[in-house]
Amino acid sequence: MEYRRLGRAGMKVSAVSLGAWLTYGGMVEDEMAARCIHTAIEQGINFIDVADVYARGRAEEVVGSVIKEYKRSDLAISSKVFWPMSENVNDRGLSRKHVMESVEKSLKRLGTDYLDIYFCHRFDPETPVEEVVRAMDDLIHQGKVLYWGTSVWSAAQIEEAVGTSRLYNCYLPQVEQPRYNMLDRHIEPEIMPTAAKHGLGLTVWSPLAQGILTGKYNEGIPEDSRLASGGQVAEWMKAELTEENVAKVRRLTQIAQELGISMAQLALAWILRRPEISSVITGASKPSQVESNARAAAIKLSPDVLERIEAILANAPAQPQM
Predict the structure, then answer these.
(1) What CATH number should be reported for the domain holding residue 208?
(2) Which of 3, 64, 86, 215 could disulfide-link 111, Cβ–Cβ 3.0 to 4.6 Å?
């Protein structure tokens, strides 16, 4: 396993990490989830990413039940705060009240004294950034959080967080967690250079575009797929599961086969080509998927392969005018 610094921070996280979104505490039975987490750690994955809202707290409980078997300092555990966790008017957002109360609940569910990373799961337009920054700074001083970060914040919002932190001599955000994959490259023009400028690492989610980039939809919609099961995730996927994108994945699959790797490994290795990426967060419903994803960290794509991939994708976003 390759390990990368979290931006300019000293802590290192595995280049491939394990996430609990849509899987643990819900779609995947607890016993299988535990097997996946055990396999991840055995494969050298030290970064496990969860959030309070994942399965309404159950994901944290499942992860917590497994990591208690390991030396806590060997792992990097993250959680997040923002989304509503109840009908209570204050049980949402990034107010100091919600942040302080939410971290205690997450720590209890995870069975740990601290979080390595605590993400602000979205930008909160109703809470002043100074209030958010000071709350995160206090949690770090209290030892309940080691690093804090943002998730799905715009470049301007990240700039504001960094500027506010510096103004009040508070701990700076150290990481941004955006969506990024071969089909969604929106972070390249502004978010990626902003993060690099301020020393934030990037831990990216949905690297396989909810399974589209595994090639499983190349010949239609499998009956056991997320798209076939319906729900909100299926609605999200429909926008990307176009004939144009499927045609691209078919051609990319041919490249993967030539290299002797899976389509998923090609997609993960393509993301990890960027030095700005600290870790790629992968989901897995079975141990074999964890093992396959972990092997992607060792795959280095040559310049000619990257050129062929770029020609197929043909979706590099325009860079902003200076």
Answers:
(1) 3.20.20.100
(2) 64
What is residue 280's DSSP assignment? E
DSSP string, 227-263: HHH-SHHHHHHHTT--HHHHHHHHHHHHHHHHHTS-H
User: Furthest-apart CA pair in the chain: how many Å?
Assistant: 55
Q: Mind listing the pLDDT tens digit for each residue in 306-320?
A: 999 999 999 999 877
Active site residues: 54
Average pLDDT over residues 7-22: 95
The residue whose two tokens read 């309404």 is 56
Tell me what pLDDT residue 318 has.
Answer: 83
User: If pLDDT is split at 50, 70 and 90, which confidence band does 300 have?
Assistant: very high
On whether residue 237 sits in a domain, the answer given is no
> Could you tell me the pTM of the whole model?
0.92
**Domain range for residue 60?**
3-212+263-299
Distance CA 121, CA 185 (A): 20
The overall average pLDDT reported for the chain is 94
Distance CA(269)–CA(12), nearest Å, equals: 18
How far is Cα 153 from Cα 241, in angstroms, rounded to an integer?
Answer: 25
Helices of type H across 7-128 = 30-42, 58-67, 96-110
Two tokens, residue 149: 């970060």
pLDDT score at 233: 66
The count of structural domains within the chain is 1
Q: 3-state DSSP call for residue 190? A: coil
